[in-house]
Write a structure and sequence with these properties.
heterodimer; A: mainly alpha; two-stranded parallel ribbon; two-stranded antiparallel sheet; 9 helices; 55% helix; globular; B: mainly alpha; 10 helices; 2 strands; Ferritin-like domain-containing protein (chain B); Ferritin-like domain-containing protein (chain A)
């Protein structure tokens, strides 16, 4: 129990960081049993050869940089593939825009981080068939949804308001991408229960705020996001985000 | 487990725990537990209650957080009654698009639930459908029934689908900018911040879909020419002033700069126009159109209220200057 209550971060971190860590353990509805389990869970199994994004605000920027690199590389590969070359003009336009946006995001983070940037990552897209529309759209949806959930889940780790706003400027564009890709796959699936905790009215739908669910995007913490991202990164380019838990 | 020991240990992490709990001595009194034995059976509920008291929402929220959340709640009511009225209007939304607008209406309803929960007793009251004039006329006469509108430039909002979509796009894009502008104020409460972020991205998904529908509609019977614009699913430069830039009220402010629009400090909070291409002091090189599309911009509360006030009945008192 004592272990749980000690700040997981080094003691030189500011108080706000410690309290934030504490808040995560002390979710208002969490029972003592859950607290004990959380306290005993010592999950430090991440591989030693992974590239850690670092800590603090630069760590979050590097985390975003890693994900944007992955997305940029993906759309570059889409544009070099057989599906894209045979696609109708409207779909080509969409992928042209997405490729530009994601490359801009990746380049932006690289420039903003300067010498503090992690290295260029090598993707592994061997599981994606770039000649097949469904395979491309499925992967695009996975990357875009992952990006949104990742930014939303990382917001609490940001300390400088200016960085939070920059992350916010990007995450809504990722959400726009995600919604469009989802609509391309299945019209009206721009929000669905896998990514948004859909709200269901329990009485009259015309009475606001009464029902089950929240209408909130389902955000993901870095530990979960890196596991998914690493499926698309080569050995030696896999990442970890050990400071953000 | 000794509850006092637990709280003492919490103190090491959060020195302000006692301030949050009124005072050390009154912890138990507060929960009606004075003099009673703390058994294993009551402990989980007790601990959870204490944490809720110490870190929960409502009366303990700072005033600036309350202001941000109540503005967000006002915007959610604006949107909720807009979509609900659209769904109730006969022959407005084609059957293929009804599932989308039912989802959007329900999402807004959920957001209202979440914001009310965060605000507790400080939440503004439900203003009701009659508080809004979706014609954009800021009509002092309250709406009658579900589909009546005032005399603003969008008076056909519930009879002409392109107008409905145009107004919708203005609302969602304003909402995204409002949440983005308000987020830094919420940083003191990480759980409230995350909830707001999780609403923000859903609003962006809504905007994307509404824009996708608008892109698919070409030159349908439409009295307001700029409503015929075919937007991308993301904001491109200034989006030609939005769905209806030449009406009064105009949709231009939805994509325009707020206050302040710039600063020499890269980390300062600024509210530039949507065609901005400089972030954290880094200017995006190359294609300015793509560079503007790749980033959405925040908007300050005053600018957001100036936009939203055009759709509130004067006597509602919503979106005060």
């Amino acid at each position: 129990m004592t272990k749980l209550l000690l700040p997981p971060e080094p003691a030189d971190k500011p108080t706000s960081t410690s309290r934030r860590s504490f808040l995560r353990y002390s979710g208002a509805t969490m029972a003592v049993g859950g607290l004990l389990l959380a306290g005993c869970d010592d999950d430090s199994e991440s591989g030693s050869n992974r590239i850690d994004v670092g800590s603090g605000d630069p760590g979050i920027l590097n985390y975003a940089y890693a994900l944007e690199q992955l997305e940029a590389a993906f759309y570059a590969a889409v544009k070099g593939g057989a599906y894209y070359s045979g696609a109708p003009a409207s779909e080509k336009q969409i992928f042209d825009d997405l490729a530009l946006h994601e490359q801009i995001h990746a380049d932006f983070f690289k420039t903003a981080l300067g010498n503090g940037a992690i290295k260029a990552l090598e993707p592994d897209f061997s599981t994606i068939n770039f000649g097949d529309k469904n395979s491309v759209l499925t992967a695009a949806q996975a990357f875009e949804d992952l990006g949104v959930a990742a930014y939303n889940g990382a917001g609490r780790f940001i300390t400088a308001p200016g960085y939070l706003v920059v992350a916010g400027k990007i995450v809504s564009v990722e959400a726009r991408h995600a919604a469009l890709i989802r609509d391309l796959r299945a019209y009206n699936s721009f929000v669905d229960n896998d990514v948004v905790d859909l709200f269901t009215p329990s009485g009259s739908a015309s009475t606001p705020g009464v029902g089950n669910g929240t209408g909130l995007e389902r955000s993901k913490r870095p530990a979960e996001v890196v596991e998914t991202a690493n499926q698309f990164l080569k050995e030696g380019s896999k990442i970890s985000a050990n400071s953000f838990k | 487990m000794d509850l006092f020991k637990l709280i003492k240990e919490i103190e090491q992490v959060d020195p302000e725990i006692y301030d949050r709990l009124d005072s050390r001595r009154r912890v138990f009194k507060h929960f009606g537990m004075a003099g009673k034995a703390v058994t294993a059976a009551v402990l989980p509920g007790l601990v959870s209650g204490i944490f809720q008291r110490a870190y929960g929402q409502g009366t303990t929220l700072p005033a600036d957080v309350v202001a941000v959340l109540n503005l967000a709640l006002s915007l959610e009511y604006l949107e909720f009654y807009f979509y609900d009225s659209g769904l109730k209007a006969n022959n407005l939304i084609p059957s293929a698009d009804r599932p989308a607008f039912e989802k959007i209406r329900n999402d807004e309803s959920g957001h209202i639930k979440v914001l009310r929960g965060a605000l507790g007793s400080l939440a503004i009251a439900d203003p009701g459908r009659g508080a809004f004039d979706y014609s954009g006329g800021r009509n002092p006469v309250p709406l009658v029934g579900d589909t009546a509108v005032g005399n603003g430039p969008f008076k056909t909002v519930f009879t002409a689908y392109p107008i409905f979509l145009g107004v919708s796009q203005s609302f969602v894009d304003t909402g995204i900018r409002a949440y983005k502008g308000g987020a830094p104020v919420l940083m003191t409460n990480k759980d409230v911040l995350e909830a707001a972020l999780n609403i923000h991205s859903v609003e962006a998904r809504h905007s994307s879909h509404v824009r996708t529908i608008r892109r698919g509609i070409t030159n349908v019977a439409n009295p307001t020419a700029p409503m015929n614009a075919q937007p991308k699913s993301w904001v491109s430069l200034l989006d030609n002033g939005g769905p209806s830039p030449d009406t009064n009220p105009s949709t231009r402010p939805v994509y325009d700069a707020g206050t302040p629009a710039s600063s020499s400090d890269p980390l300062a909070l600024v509210y530039p126009k949507e065609d901005n291409v400089t972030h954290l002091g880094v200017t995006i090189p190359g294609n300015a159109t793509a560079a503007s599309e790749a980033f959405d911009e925040p908007l300050d509360a005053v600018s957001v209220k100036n936009i939203a006030r055009n759709f509130a009945v004067l006597t509602s008192g919503l979106f005060p200057a």
